Amino acid sequence: STELGGWWTNGVGHSPRATVPHVYCIPHALFLQHTTAAQLRGRMVRWITDKAAFDAAVGGDKPIIIDFTASWCGPCKMIGPVFEELSKSAGGLQFAKVDVDVNKATAATCGIKAMPTFQVWKGGQKQEEFSSADRAALTALIGRWDFPASADDCIPGDVVILQGLVSKPELNGVDATVQPRETWPANGRISVLPKVEQAAALALKPANIALQTLPDAVQVAPGSHVVVDGLQSKPELNRKRGVVVPGGENGRVIVQLASAVSIAAKPANLAMIRRASDGRGGD
User: Fold this and answer.
1) 227/241 Cα distance (integer angstroms)
2) 116: preceding bond cis by omega (within 30 degrees)
3) Which residue among the candidates 25, 73, 110, 154 is catalytic per the annotation?
4) Contact 17, 6 (CB under 8 A)
């Protein structure tokens, strides 16, 4: 066994000396340019270096996604640049990283047993997590918690997740369908109908809803509502909403963005928005 900064490896997995038991690097299917820890630290995602900073970061009203990583973890180095890139086009979701060697107390508190692990926290409570270097899973997780920047980002028929409701906390995490625009109040709120028995429509702030996306296995087709992601040549268009229109060639599809700009994108760069009419969110 070889000691690596307080951790040790036996050629199979990685385990700490004391605080966090049985941490293993997750196999990955990504091939990205190698990025060092020093390079990652120079980007816009903040690092949480102690337990007090972690408690402060996760205790707020806004959701935060945390990448638990280590400088020696190969899969972490592969998915790290993806996490960084997605953070640049996020709306209300905050992004942070925890180095399990530097902040062992937080890693132990959060029960980290595999890396990379991504956890979403809100109001001091862990909301969701997964352990993998899978870009599709990470993009889907971010899509579930990155609420729209304005009411214009939602349209009637979208299936959203309710979050951050203080007066009706029992509805947090519940699916809801965005209602026709004529039912929206004139104060910037969005009218949604929760998918629970005998529920009445609610007029909510954009911060209280999160758009949902469908798994990558769902094929896009003309008329599909999508979110663009992972564009290298035009990163400013990432996280923009659009509709797939007829046309396209060489395996690409044409997407009409809300800004009247059309792009030819690979299906891998599109996440389909969950709609009430697609059979997965209907009433």
Assistant:
1) 5
2) yes
3) 73
4) yes
Measured distance CA(117)–CA(133) in Å, rounded: 8
User: What three-state secondary structure class fits 144?
Assistant: helix
How do residues 172-229 score in pLDDT, each as one tens digit? 888 899 999 999 998 889 999 999 988 899 999 887 887 777 766 567 888 888 888 7
- Cα separation, 67 vs 201, whole angstroms: 36
**Catalytic entry in 25, 76, 110, 154:** 76
76: annotated active-site residue = yes
Contact 57, 64 (CB under 8 A): yes
- Nearest CA to 110 out of 49, 62, 54, 163 is that of 54
Indicate the SS3 state at residue 273. Answer: strand
Q: What is the pLDDT of residue 91?
A: 62
pLDDT tens sequence across 89-137 = 666 688 999 999 999 999 999 999 999 999 999 889 998 899 999 988 8
Give 158-210 as a 3 state SS string.
Answer: EEEEECCCCCCHHHCCCEEEECCHHHCCCCCCEEEEECCCCCCCEEECHHHEE
pTM of the model: 0.51
